[in-house]
Design brief:
single chain, alpha+beta, Aminopeptidase, 5-stranded mixed beta sheet, 4 helices
Amino acid sequence: MNIRPVQLQDFDQWKVLWDGYNAFYERVGPTALPENITQTTWQRFFDTYEPVHALVAEVDGQLLGLVHYLYHRSTTSIGPNCYLQDLFTAEAARGKGVGRALIDAVIDISKAAGCGRLYWHTRESNVTAQRLYNQVAEGGGVMVYRKIF
């Protein structure tokens, strides 16, 4: 398995994974992400000004997973923090170490970038993902609140 930055020619395969991720989070039908958000997200991966990045897991030319992460400042540290925003593996690749390899890659990249913290969220009901997350990180013990506009 090769974990690498996403490339322009990956769009079609990335989009299949992205659509699967959004379907998992029930962003389909009337609650689907508008296409301009997908296109803007994709473009941000290749804009050096943007703090948004993407890695993919590849085996024999087939993309099996994706991870998106971004850097941001914090009032409690000098260096940046890294937020792992999206993680998804193709159904056929689940349980084969793809998700862990993607997380490990972001851990290594975050450390190299001088980040003091890498963090992410998941739904309380996503117990499958939590089994992996509990192996690679500690729960934060915080509740997330949001207001959507």
